Amino acid sequence: MIVVIPPFRRWAGGSDRDGRDRIDPAMPETTLAAAAIRWYDENARDLPWREPDVGAWAILVSEIMLQQTPVVRVLPAWRAWLSRWPTPAALAADTPAEAIRMWGRLGYPRRALRLRECAVAIVERHSGVVPTDLDALLALPGVGTYTARAVATFAYGQRHPVVDTNVRRFVARAVAGEPDAGPATRPADLVATEALLPAEPVRAARASAAFMELGALICTARTPRCADCPVTEVCAWRASGRPAPTGPTRRPQQYAGTDRQVRGLLLAVLREATGPVPHERLDLVWADAAQRSRALAGLVADGLVELVGDACVLAGDRPG
């Protein structure tokens, strides 16, 4: 049975007191989900972590890397990472410094540390196997609401709402007629997305992937392609005339001249080094001494860099 969710109508369900998503197994499949899955089956990008023989560890690595980093940059890094560390145990046995080096220029390098800490926890708590249970996934270092549900869904075929920025925007527009889903994922976003999922877990996982792909390729933030959207006939936002956002315009993040840029330059020198790097060498990276010192202090505070006398090394790369 297929039903249509009327425009501007949200599901009246909710969540348990502990915040766990409540699922109605008798809920029929929506027209929106069915159309999204059909579109996905014909138009989805051919990404390696979507191959049927890819395991949970590879999917977990992809999800961590894809946070705040475009797919085109993740692809070579993901392949290199799994070539070196095909299992959690392989990464757990290596040093944090090597994880930071392999992370390269993907950005937000603390993710490399969290991923290694996650690998260590998987080895210590789960005998080296990525757990299937949602609570066990949520208990891993660096694994939050989105990542845990993504792994449980895409690696193990479970039925969970997988909500990232693209999914939130797609659901907000299609179901609620809202042009923008707001700045952060809320419990209501999980409820609204869960209401669209088919009851059968494997098909629900397919729908989750389809919603994400539609948000990334069709229902984009700046130039939505409504003419190419498979759910345009049931989209509340389109039915209401595609109203523009009413909140303040988000300014794109600057990079040039920021502490982030200085941190990246300092890390680049340390990644290439074969031993401790003296402060005099790091002084050449950036002319502004105060900003350079602030950036270096931030790297130390984040656990990415360690001080060794008058020199610096990547975390876990101390000599001797």
Any overview of this molecule?
It is an enzyme of class 3 (hydrolase). Residues 65-217 form the HhH-GPD domain. Belongs to the Nth/MutY family. This protein has 320 residues and is mainly α. The chain folds into 3 domains: 2-46 and 159-239, Endonuclease Iii, domain 2 (Orthogonal Bundle), CATH 1.10.1670; 56-154, Endonuclease III, domain 1 (Orthogonal Bundle), CATH 1.10.340.30; 259-314, Orthogonal Bundle (Arc Repressor Mutant, subunit A). The chain has helices at 31-43, 56-66, 71-84, 88-92, 96-103, 110-126, 134-138, 145-154, 165-176, 187-194, 201-217, 236-239, 259-272, 279-283, 289-301; strands spanning 2-3, 29-30, 277-278, 305-308, 311-314. The strands form 2 sheets. Strands 3-5-4 form a 3-stranded antiparallel β-sheet. A two-stranded parallel ribbon has the order 1-2. The longest helix has 17 residues, at 110-126. The protein is globular. The model is unreliable at 1-27 (pLDDT under 50).
